[in-house]
Design goal:
The structure holds two protein chains of two kinds. Chain A is mostly helical. Chain A has helices spanning 4-35, 37-40, 50-80; strands at 44-45, 48-49. By secondary structure, chain B is mainly α. Chain B is 67% helix and 2% strand. In chain B, the strands form two sheets. Chain B has a two-stranded antiparallel ribbon with strand order 1-3. A two-stranded antiparallel ribbon of chain B has the order 2-4. The chains are: A mainly alpha, B mainly alpha. Chains A and B meet through helix 1, strand 2 and helix 3 of A and helix 5, helix 11, helix 12 and helix 14 of B.
Chain lengths: 86, 601
């Protein structure tokens, strides 16, 4: 069974993952897709202006990836700190 | 076989399937009724969440909305998907660990307060009824357009179907019908999109196709030369006086930012979405399920902007400056529904499309006594709505036409058109069912079991739950038949309210043990009052002032939920700091939520 110290570090690592992943979440949608979209539109990739692409579908694709990464990380973390479901 | 016959067959078959599932998944316990006995596989729960989430508006109206808004329309795409990242990381696993049946119940226990629970019940019921009325109306509209029955009859048929599986199966019945409905709706959405993508760009993946170049066939259809599709679209828009399709449009950056944020946190605070994550067998499963849900949703949400671009370019190129007699057949077919209309303002016999609106106000037509359209000089329907003289635009095109006319634009067979009808119905019915369950469980569990008759047996509670579900269906149906004029206005309400009430209270409830009852109550009340009064003022009290010049920092009523949320967070923080810390029992409960395993402290 997990000790008190173990529990605390599990939670801390979880929060660290959340902060990092939500920073990416914020960057791709609010920064790339809205605030800097006009500037990024000068770059074209495969026919898409980049800012428009982030707003139109890039953000959504990256959101899916972010959740997948979080699920993977947490599944490992649960076992590392022995707090997974039995 | 005619389109109508195909539609009856496909819609009938899909309904038979839903009823069959309802029989198979009958709920026997309250656990099954409220959370499907926590036995739903994460992937299936993902599909069910997708159907729960994607409403008639997502299916029928969203691509059209984006088509007319250009890049600004992305706020719906990002706003209605980004909330799942928040759900996966900040809400779903912890609420699943909590493991009880409703969102108000969590609020009540975490904040050791019956009044907090009651405030949450009122919010949950208000948000859900707001939403569900629109869904029932959507069912009626699909019926009237595709099956040529009266809207009200359509609403009644929809009610009967939902009544059946929601009352019989509760969450269990709803979950498995939603899985079937997801399959129907995504198939119905993708097939026309794929064929249009092939027709215009030769690429079978619409998500990639709209960034590509036009194919030989595409050039012929659109009557243009080679090049990137989006560049063509930008050029055509600029030629007609619009801003470029891929550039920002009419809305300010701050407003787009705020609306997107309000939609994201609103999504994460909507009770009918949150409770879906109570149904997975494990906490690990709840996290994964949020990922599956977003994947299934993103499939439609990344296709929608492709459909929007294809349809926009096709519409402008095949209609603008064409004589009415030469207009494509889909235009004339859909004229019958009143979703498209033309008035020859400059008397040249040609359709002209331009910036601005063709008519002032709600579209209306001149009809014979028998309800048949009167025809004008060229055979077009006669619009009685006054012309808008400020614009040379002669065309009225309803947003919904973009999805509805897709199969005909792609020249697909009749059964595909029928499938789109079944898809629209699936989208509306699945969302309605999810919302009705929230209303039913709020009544039977949070009010009857908790407040009015605490000693009731499980068997009786199940009966109350069924009665509540049945009652909710009838009320929703009533609003579907007699839609209050404000339905369209209150969608902002549902998201704004969820954003400014539930979201902060649940988040701090999990991530901050020090959050107190007083903090939560005052936070919710301030958040809701601020958001509600802002929306009510601009939407109902003084609608003529509803423009950027009068808004607070240029934020529209649709985006104000973001500020309401910040107010809630702020008030909750300050008041919690000033009041006595929560009882040890509650702090232990919060501690325990954070770990998948039971933590003995």
């Amino acid at each position: 069974m997990a000790t008190k110290a173990n529990q605390a570090s599990y939670w801390k690592e979880n929060l660290r993952y959340i902060v990092i992943l939500l920073s990416i979440w914020f960057a791709v949608s609010y920064l790339f897709g809205i605030i800097f979209a006009d500037a990024l539109d000068n770059i074209h990739i495969a026919g898409f202006p980049l800012g428009f692409w982030f707003a139109n579908q890039g953000s959504e694709v990256i959101f899916v990836i972010l959740i997948a990464v979080y699920v993977k990380l947490m599944n490992h973390l649960d076992i590392k700190y022995d707090v997974h479901e039995q | 076989m005619s389109i109508l016959a195909w539609t009856w067959i496909i819609v009938g078959a899909s309904f038979a399937l839903y009823i069959g599932i309802a029989f198979w998944a009958k709920a026997r316990t309250t656990g099954e009724f409220y959370v499907a006995a926590k036995q739903v596989h994460p992937v299936l729960n993902g599909m069910a969440t997708g159907a729960d989430w994607m409403s008639a508006a997502s299916f029928i109206s969203m691509a059209g909305l984006i088509s007319f808004m250009g890049r600004d329309g992305s706020m719906y795409l990002m706003g209605w998907t980004g909330g799942y990242v928040l759900l996966a990381m900040l809400l779903a696993p912890y609420l699943r660990k909590y493991g009880k049946y409703t969102v108000p119940m969590f609020v009540g226990e975490r904040y050791y307060s019956q009044s907090a629970r009651v405030v949450a019940v009122v919010c949950a019921i208000f948000v859900s009824f707001t939403y569900v009325a629109g869904q029932m109306r959507g069912v009626g509209v699909v019926f009237s357009r595709f099956l040529e029955v009266d809207i009200n009859t359509g609403v009644m048929i929809g009610m009967a179907i939902v009544f059946f599986y929601a009352v019989l199966g509760g969450m269990k019945g709803i979950t498995y019908t939603q899985v079937a409905q997801y399959v129907v709706l995504i198939t119905a959405y993708m097939i026309p999109a794929i064929f249009i993508s092939i027709m215009l760009t030769g690429n079978p993946i619409p998500q990639l196709g709209y960034g590509g170049t036009l194919s030989e066939n595409g050039m012929a259809v659109l009557g243009t030369n080679s090049g990137y599709l989006l560049e063509k679209l930008n050029q055509v828009q600029i030629d007609l006086g619009f801003s470029a399709y891929t550039a920002g449009g009419a809305k300010s950056t701050i407003d787009v930012f705020m609306i997107t944020f309000a939609l994201m946190v609103g999504t994460a605070g909507l009770p009918h979405i949150i409770i879906r994550f109570f149904t997975t067998p494990t906490i690990k499963g709840a996290r994964a399920s949020a990922g599956w849900a977003l994947l299934f949703i993103a499939l439609l949400y990344t296709t929608a902007p492709a459909v929007a671009s294809f349809a926009r370019l096709n519409m402008i190129n095949t209609l603008n400056n064409k004589a009415y007699a030469e207009a494509p057949s889909w235009f004339k077919n859909w004229e019958k529904t009143g979703l498209v209309a033309w008035k020859d303002k400059n008397n040249d016999g040609k359709l002209q499309y331009a910036k601005g609106t063709a008519f002032k106000g709600k579209i209306a037509f001149e009809k014979e006594a028998a309800g048949v359209f009167k025809k004008g000089r060229y055979g077009e329907n006669i619009v009685t709505t006054p012309m808008d003289d400020k614009s040379t635009n002669e065309l009225y095109i309803d947003n919904d036409i973009i999805v509805l006319a897709n199969p005909e634009i792609a020249k697909l067979p009749a059964w595909v058109i029928a499938l789109v009808a079944a898809g629209g119905l699936a989208a509306a019915l699945s969302t309605a069912a999810g919302l009705l369950l929230v209303i039913a469980s709020a009544f039977s569990h949070d009010l009857i079991k908790n407040v009015i008759l605490p000693n009731t047996t499980e068997k009786n509670e199940l009966i109350y739950a069924r009665i509540a579900a049945g009652g909710a269906v009838i009320v929703a149906g009533y609003f579907g038949i007699h839609p209050p004029g404000f339905v369209a206005q209150v969608v902002a309400f549902a998201f704004g309210l969820a954003a400014s009430s539930f979201f902060p209270v649940i988040i701090l409830g999990i991530f901050w043990k020090r959050a107190t009852k007083e903090g939560a109550m005052l936070g919710m009340i301030c958040g809701i009052i601020f958001t509600a009064s802002y929306i009510i003022y601009f939407k109902f009290v003084n609608p003529s002032a509803n423009n950027a010049g009068n808004w607070l920092w240029g934020i529209s009523p649709e985006g104000i939920g973001t500020i309401g949320m910040l107010i809630n967070f702020g008030v909750m923080y300050i008041v919690s700091k000033m009041t006595k810390e929560p009882p040890q029992k509650v702090q232990d409960m919060v501690q325990n939520l954070r770990y998948p395993r039971e933590i003995v402290s």
